């Protein structure tokens, strides 16, 4: 295997990967991308060839803040600091590599879902750029209220315990504040919103339709175009049955597991 593409990286908080995560990480490796998986502790079943490194190399985890939020909050901060430190492309552990990321694509972020909102599940920026500066400042120095908030959201946060960390109160008020919302706002003020890729590039299948990945008669590839680089599987929105059982023969997930040598029966959700 020749790893001559741009490096990609992700973060895992947990003791083992689900088969979907194993598949998605290995798909980047099989397309020639060096893959680094940052972890907060030992992970039992990382595919061979993926470099495992401690998340502490990139970010110091605040145990109190982590307890008050969710792993997704940590991932939002981590991905931006990782890009600044390494220049790698961030990929969620449920982002499947359909074809390699182009070497000349400086800005990799795009629309998802049926509304066309931005998603930060796959992100690449020049490490030294205005949008990176603004995102890092938002995480390191959270404002009293995010600038895009309505009066309703401000009142909602005002009802929370003021002794809680500001970042935790912002997160509790709007769970996507440090993710897609911050990305959208910072892209606007940095003047790069027009660089956002259309849904077909990174999130071709709307998350509202993600059952199609497991349907043997579903036509997943109908969502793809020659410009499709990544396919988001949206494991957080996947029905429990699909997480606890191997994919049905002939489905997109079953075909991709076979293609990349992943046995789904060895890594199902308990």
SSE map:
Elements lengths: L7 E5 L6 H12 L4 E5 L11 E4 L8 H6 L2 H16 L2 E3 L3 E3 L10 E5 L4 E8 L5 H11 L10 H8 L7 H8 L3 H13 L9 H4 L27 E3 L7 H5 L7 H9 L10
Parallel strand pairs: 1-2, 1-4, 2-3
Antiparallel strand pairs: 4-7, 5-8, 6-7
Helix pairs in contact: 1-10, 3-4, 4-7, 5-6
Describe this structure in words.
It is a single chain. By secondary structure, this protein is of the alpha/beta class. It has one domain (8-126, 197-266). The protein has helices at residues 19-30, 63-68, 71-86, 130-140, 151-158, 166-173, 177-189, 199-202, 240-244, 252-260, and strands spanning 8-12, 35-39, 51-54, 89-91, 95-97, 108-112, 117-124, 230-232. The strands form two sheets. A six-stranded mixed β-sheet has the order 3-2-1-4-7-6, with helices on both faces. Strand 6 and strand 7 form a beta hairpin. The longest helix has 16 residues, at 71-86. The mean pLDDT is 94.
> Based on helices, strands and strand pairing, what is the structural class?
alpha/beta
What is the number of independent domains? 1
**What gyration radius follows from the Cα positions, in whole Å?**
18 Å
What's the overall geometry? globular
Largest sheet: spatial strand order: 3-2-1-4-7-6
Parts with pLDDT < 50 across at least 5 consecutive residues: none
């Amino acid at each position: 295997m020749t790893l001559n593409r741009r490096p990609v990286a992700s973060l895992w908080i947990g003791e083992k990967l689900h088969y979907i995560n194993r598949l998605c990480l290995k798909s980047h490796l099989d397309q020639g991308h060096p893959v680094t998986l940052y972890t907060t502790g030992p992970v039992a079943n990382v595919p061979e060839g993926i470099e495992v490194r401690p998340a502490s190399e990139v970010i110091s985890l605040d145990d109190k803040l982590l307890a008050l939020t969710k792993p997704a909050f940590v991932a939002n901060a981590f991905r931006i600091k990782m890009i600044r430190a390494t220049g790698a492309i961030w990929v969620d552990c449920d982002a499947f590599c359909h074809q390699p990321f182009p070497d000349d694509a400086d800005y990799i972020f795009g629309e998802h879902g049926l509304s066309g909102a931005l998603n930060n599940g796959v992100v690449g920026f020049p490490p030294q750029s205005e949008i990176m500066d603004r995102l890092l400042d938002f995480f390191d120095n959270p404002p009293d209220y995010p600038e895009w908030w309505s009066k309703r959201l401000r009142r909602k946060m005002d009802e929370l315990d003021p002794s809680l960390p500001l970042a935790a109160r912002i997160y509790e008020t709007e769970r996507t504040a440090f993710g897609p919302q911050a990305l959208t706002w910072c892209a606007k003020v940095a003047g790069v919103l027009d660089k956002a890729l259309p849904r077909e590039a990174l999130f071709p299948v709307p998350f509202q339709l993600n059952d199609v990945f497991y349907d043997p008669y579903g036509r997943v590839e109908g969502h793809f175009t020659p410009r499709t680089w990544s396919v988001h599987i949206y494991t957080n929105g996947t029905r429990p049955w699909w997480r606890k059982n191997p994919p049905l023969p002939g489905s997109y997930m079953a075909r991709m597991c076979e293609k990349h040598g992943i046995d789904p029966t060895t890594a199902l959700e308990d």
